[in-house]
């Protein structure tokens, strides 16, 4: 019963005095049915009881896949259980960024977990600023679907967090579009890391087109000079 209480106590708003996320208990950012499955799961009871920001790291580095719920009984994955645990302890921002950046460089599933937490809890502009750099992370991730495992990539997962309404079996709060935040001057326009390469390719294509055009003009010009030369010689011959 104490394991169950560990999860249930965090959901009792009558006694909740911790930090709020968008005006509510952060644990409530996960839907009720999913919360119940998490707090009833064996992984939650055995592996998540009593974790804090430091000891949760030990569990996160053991992750081997991402996912929400799976199977006929819609069992929660360890990934989702740890995400919910983060919502109940609300670690300091610096700790989350440490998970995401330096820790994430070594443990990709730790980065994925931190990215999911960022999407659930950070302010809109901070979500974009914090997660967009990882659109360049192309490492492979295993993802557990309802019936099987599939292959995905970190950049695809981050893009899902930035563009979709649901992820990991969880409804995401509505994130304003990037363009809307740019129009409000809350975000600078994002430059793709490939933009420099694309610009270079455009310049090369333009140079090639100009080269072909100049080649044709050059031929015409040479012909023109030849014709003009003959004309001039003819004129001189006639004048002589």
UniProtKB/TrEMBL annotation:
Compositional bias (Polar residues): 228-240
Keyword Nucleus included in the entry's annotation: yes
Main localization (coarse): nucleus
Keywords: mRNA processing, mRNA splicing, Nucleus, Spliceosome
InterPro entries noted in UniProt: PRP38
Superkingdom of origin: Eukaryota
Localization in the cell: Nucleus
A GO CC term assigned to this protein in UniProt: spliceosomal complex
Name of a matching Pfam family: PRP38
Chain intervals with Acidic residues compositional bias: 194-209
Region (Disordered), start-end ranges: 183-240
GO terms under biological process: mRNA splicing, via spliceosome
Protein family: Belongs to the PRP38 family.
Classification via PANTHER family: PRE-MRNA-SPLICING FACTOR 38A-RELATED
Function: Required for pre-mRNA splicing.
Name by which UniProt lists this protein: Pre-mRNA-splicing factor 38
């Amino acid at each position: 019963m104490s394991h169950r209480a560990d999860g249930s106590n965090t959901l009792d708003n009558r006694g909740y005095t911790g930090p709020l996320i968008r005006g509510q208990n952060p644990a409530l950012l996960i839907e009720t049915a999913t919360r119940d499955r998490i707090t009833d799961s064996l992984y939650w009871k055995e592996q998540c009881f009593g974790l804090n920001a430091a000891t949760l790291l030990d569990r996160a580095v053991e992750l081997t896949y991402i996912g929400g719920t799976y199977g006929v009984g819609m069992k929660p994955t360890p990934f989702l259980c740890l995400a919910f645990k983060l919502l109940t302890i609300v670690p300091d921002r610096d700790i989350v960024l440490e998970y995401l950046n330096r820790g994430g460089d070594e443990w990709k599933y730790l980065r994925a977990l931190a990215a999911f937490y960022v999407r659930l809890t950070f302010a809109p502009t901070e979500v974009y600023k914090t997660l967009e750099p990882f659109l360049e992370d192309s490492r492979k991730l295993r993802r557990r679907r309802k019936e099987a495992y599939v292959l995905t990539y970190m950049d695809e997962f981050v893009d899902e967090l930035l563009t979709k309404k649901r992820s990991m079996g969880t409804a995401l709060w509505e994130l304003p579009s990037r363009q809307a935040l740019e129009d409000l001057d809350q975000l600078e326009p994002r430059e793709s890391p490939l933009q420099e390469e694309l610009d270079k390719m455009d310049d090369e294509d333009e140079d090639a087109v100009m080269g072909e055009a100049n080649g044709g003009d050059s031929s015409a010009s040479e012909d023109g000079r030849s014709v003009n030369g003959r004309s001039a010689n003819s004129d001189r011959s006639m004048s002589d």
